[in-house]
Each structure stands twice: as structure tokens, then as C-alpha cells.
Amino acid sequence: MPSDLDAYLRDCRQTVEAELDRVLPPANEAPALLHEAMRYSVFAGGKRIRPVFAIAAAECLGGSRQAALPAAAAVELLHTYTLIHDDLPCMDDDDFRRGRPSCHKAFGEANALLAGDALLTLALETAASSPVAPGAIVRALASAAGSRGVVGGQVADLAATGQHPDEATMRFIHEHKTADLFRAGIEMGALSASADADALTALSAFGRACGLAFQMVDDLLDADNPDDHSFSCVHIMGVERARALATTLTADAMDALRPFGDAADTLRALARRLLERTS
Amino acid sequence: MPSDLDAYLRDCRQTVEAELDRVLPPANEAPALLHEAMRYSVFAGGKRIRPVFAIAAAECLGGSRQAALPAAAAVELLHTYTLIHDDLPCMDDDDFRRGRPSCHKAFGEANALLAGDALLTLALETAASSPVAPGAIVRALASAAGSRGVVGGQVADLAATGQHPDEATMRFIHEHKTADLFRAGIEMGALSASADADALTALSAFGRACGLAFQMVDDLLDADNPDDHSFSCVHIMGVERARALATTLTADAMDALRPFGDAADTLRALARRLLERTS
Hints:
The structure is a homodimer. Chain A is an all-alpha fold. Chain A has one domain (2-271): Farnesyl Diphosphate Synthase (Orthogonal Bundle). Chain A has 12 helices and 2 strands. Chain A has helices spanning 5-23, 32-42, 49-60, 65-87, 103-107, 109-127, 134-145, 150-160, 167-192, 197-222, 233-256, 265-275, and strands at 96-97, 100-101. In chain A, helix 1 (5-23) packs across helix 4 (65-87) and helix 3 crosses helix 9. Chain A is globular, with a radius of gyration of 18 Å.
């Protein structure tokens, strides 16, 4: 339903915000500083892209939004923890995130470290509260988030910073640092709708291609920013080849949705919006 | 089987070491530095107290050791992550752990942070691989480890360092920083043996009392160390009252085992060994 996409996004986001508010301890519960720090970073104006994809994947398979909510909230909590730890002085040392002081600037380094730890833990606890397939949903999230997923990608990214990595290294980083969590959110949504093995494989391929294309588009949009010293595919393969690869990946993502017919129209519209954005 | 306790401990530990080795990625798998750091900290000579209690709790209920192994390995992986993050410069800033350089001294701060993140993630993934009650086991571990458990205790501990906290603060810290994970390991073992609600409640009370007593004994043993500037119950309540409380907690732990009769003899022997130690 491309024409109603904005309404769909608004509606999903509102439901996700409410679920995040429900699963997070109140800001005044002891230790208050910790719970404030967790909420500060979770409610920092994120676009909730991963949860929206998780919900749309569940709905594509006829699942209910209600049943997909733990999966949707879990992937966003996990994403938030990665941002907090990424910003720490020993990592990217970023003082700002989305125009506000980063978590460690606002709450101190130890509290930011611990708020990240607590959000990672809460992400997996929330995944385990899914009314459908909690064990499989926890395993999907944890395997995408751990040393063979996001954390592995972070380590490779840190090692590559300031170096001249080759394309294989770039692919490893994009695959793990970005695509794994994108893919996991969609798999978790699908699992909450009792996906069979074929549907899971197809949606997993869709999620991977979307995640990789998302990162390419990000790098292309950042390419004009002279302050950006982070690792980018544009530095390695040039603008033209990067653009061509993003187009190929987007086509791969759309191909993966073919088995679902019209039921995947929302996923198609979301992917198009994500990959054709200009900011 | 108190007389065979040493053989029991040796046997359990050997099985736990093998399970930890099985669930951890090989040290030469990319990114190798990350996997080396994870293994460095997991195989650092820990006594595997929490896994042994998890296994003994399962066996007390007639469960198999095999079925308890994911729970046992998970609680040890989680414990290891807390040690790595605790040692970081922004936390306790400890250069040594068990006589060797701490993880960040050996692998750098960013890699230690990420190794801790990966171990926390792997702990919950391993819990989710339990052949019995994976969802309940993940929830038991995550709720004990998160902001209402271990992480909450850490934040309170940091806030109390260098202050003169009252007894209520001390209890909050001991309850969450130490007892919650002790209790969770025992609950997870019990859940792997399909514990009913009554057995779970009794073993949970046993685990909590053991964990609190364990921390009191630790503080009492550390009391003579002039270099120890960490938060200790001895500073707050004095040696005599601390000793009396440890004795009361040990009695509470033994009381909680009453419903199980002889089946709990191993748990009794383990608790006695833990609480009567002199080093």
C-alpha cells in the first residue's frame, strides 16, 4: 500500500514507541540514573526502521502486529545498545548522537557502558517474551548480534579504520555490522508469524539485501561530507561502482519477495522508500 | 555425597570446560582478536562455582547433567562478561585479574568492551539452546543480569564507592550484584530439569541465601587486605555482625533445601564448602 505508506509508518512507530515504553523500567525506579540513561538513548528520535520491517514481515505472512511487538521492540533495543557502545571514548568517541549529547556525555562513561549492557540484556529478554517461538527468536537475534554478527563487524571496522581495507574486508564489515541486524529483525518478525522454512529463507534474503543496500546508500549520502573520516565503500570502490551495487542489491531484495505476491506490497514500499532516499 | 565432593567438583568442572569450549567460536575464526579475547577471559582459571551449582540443582530434581549444560555454560559466560566490563578503566580500572593482565590490558580497551558484549550475547544464545524450557531459562538469566539485577547492582556499587553507604544500600548491592546471578544459575539448572513451581521457589531461595552469604564471606576474607578500597559490608556493619549475618544466611540456605531430603545432599555439601572456606 505505497500510497498509505506514511500512515502505515506513523501507525507502526506509535505502536513500537508504546511497546518500548512498556518494556523499559520507569525512569524513577532505582537505580534511577541507569534507567534514565536507558530511556534517554532509546527515546532519542530514532526512525524505528528495523521494528517497522519486523512488523511488516510478520504481516506479510498473515501474522498479527500484536504478536510481532516483542520482536520489533527487541531489535530496536539491541540497535540502541550498539549506538551507545559505539559512541564510547574507546570506540568512535562521538560526543553527539542525533544532535544531542551522546549517552556517555550526558550520564558519564561507566553509566553509558552499563546502560548499553542493560539494553542488550533487555533486548534478549524482550525477544524471549514473544508469544510465538521465543527460543527461535532469541537465537535469531543473538546469533546476528554476537561475535559472528554485529560485534564481529565492529571489531573488523575498528581494525580497518585509518587503513586501506580491500573490498572483501568492506563486505565483511557491511555484512556483519549492518546487514545482520536488519536481517534478524525481519526474521524475528517472520518467526512471530510462524513462518515456515521457505518463507523464512526468502525474507532472510530480502533482509540481507536491504541491509547491505541501506549501508551503501548511507555511504553514498555521506560521501560529500568532508568531516566524515569513517570507513566507507565509496572510498574503496568509487561512487559509480557503489551506486551500481546499491541498485543490484535493491533488485535482489525485490526478487526475494516474489513468492509472496501482493502480500509483500508493504515490504516493497518500505524497501523502495529506504533505498531511494536522498537524506 | 560430601565425601566424594572433590571428585564431583572435578567431574562437573571438566564437563563445563568442554561445553564452554564447544559453544565458543574457535580462536582462529575471524575476527581472531575478538575470539581470542573471549577465550582468554573464559579460560582464565575460574572455579566454575555457578555452573556447578546449576548442575547440582538439576540433579537434585532428577534432571540430567547433559540437559543442564547449556544453562551451566550460559551462567559462566555471563559471569565472565561482568568481570571484563568491571575491570575496564571507566569502571574499577583493574590491570590484573586472577594474576594475569585483565582483558583490556591484554587486548586493548575496545576489544575488551566488545568481547564482553559478545560473551553476554553468547550467554543468552546458549541459554536459548537448552533442550528444556529455553524461553524460561533465557528470561531467568536476562532478568537477573539486567538493570533490575546485576547491572543495577553495578551502578549502585559505583555510586557508593568512596561514599559511606547505609545498610540498605549495601543490601541492594549484594542482592543484585552478587546474589541475583547465583540464584539465576540455580533456577536455570532447575528449569532444565522441568522444576515445578514449588521446587523452583525453594531452590531460588537457596540460591539467593547462598549468594548473599558468599558475598559476606568474601568481604570478611578481604577485610584484612589494606589495599582493598572496594565497598565492603565489613566497613558498614563490623566484623562481628557480618559474621553473624553470614551464619544466618547459611542456615537460611540449608532450610530452603529441606523439602528435597537426601536428594539435596550435594547442594548442601557445595554450600558448606563455599561458605566455610578460608581463602
